[in-house]
Amino acid sequence: EMERRYQEEGLEVGDTSRYCATRAIFALEKGDTEASDRIFRECLEQFPASNSLVEAAMQFYEGQRRPARSIEVLETAVEASGGDRTFRVPLVMRLHASGRKDEARKLLEDATQSPQPVLAATAWVDLAGYLIDDQKFDEGIEAFQRGLEEAPEVSPQLLFQYADALLMSERYDEALEAAQKNTVPAYRALTEG
């Protein structure tokens, strides 16, 4: 049915990652996990950095309790996309959960070297969050500060996240100082609490 509708609209069925993912999902719904796996593999070779396809494949492999395959899919997507954050952050989370913390951290650190200030700043903030979640507060605060330095423009949301990280690090005076710089009264109030 879907193939017929694509042809009526003048679309090439085989050239879309969404159609590819749909075929794999339909195979799974029919109970054919082998066919679904085969289709996902073929589709991922053709469209390794398609958000919708990667997401569908991740759901499939997680549902099949194949976390190592999920990691492979994300590693390929990160590489094919030039390090896109959409794939990098979930990969970091899965690497961390699988005990590969050094690899997760290195992936984040590598992203901070982007020549584009916005991407570098975002990567520093991602690294900061990762370190703070891992109870490495001082390193996380340093990474946050680098992100603030690299950011062409510091948003109220980013200032709030920084103040929150300072609170978690029990650096209360610095958190209040950061809160005072925030232009959004609600963020200031939450920090000053």
Regions with little confidence, pLDDT below 50 for 5+ residues? 1-8, 10-14
- The best one-word shape is elongated
Task: Indicate the proportion of strand residues.
Answer: under 5%
Number of strands: 0
Order of secondary-structure elements: HHHHHHHHHHHH
| Helix run count | 12
Overall pLDDT confidence: 89
Instruction: Report the helical percentage.
Output: over 70%
Output the keywords.
mainly alpha, 12 helices, disordered N terminus
How would you describe this structure to a colleague?
With 193 residues, the chain is mainly alpha-helical. It has 12 helices and no strands. Helix 8 packs antiparallel against helix 9 (137-150). The protein is elongated, with a radius of gyration of 21 Å. It starts with a helix and ends with a helix.
Helices and strands in order, then pairings?
Elements: H1 2-8, H2 17-29, H3 33-46, H4 51-63, H5 67-80, H6 85-97, H7 101-111, H8 117-133, H9 137-150, H10 156-168, H11 172-180, H12 185-192
Helix pairs in contact: 2-3, 2-4, 3-4, 4-5, 5-6, 6-7, 7-8, 8-9, 9-10, 10-11, 11-12
Describe the structure concisely.
With 193 residues, the chain is mainly alpha-helical. It is 76% helix and 0% strand.
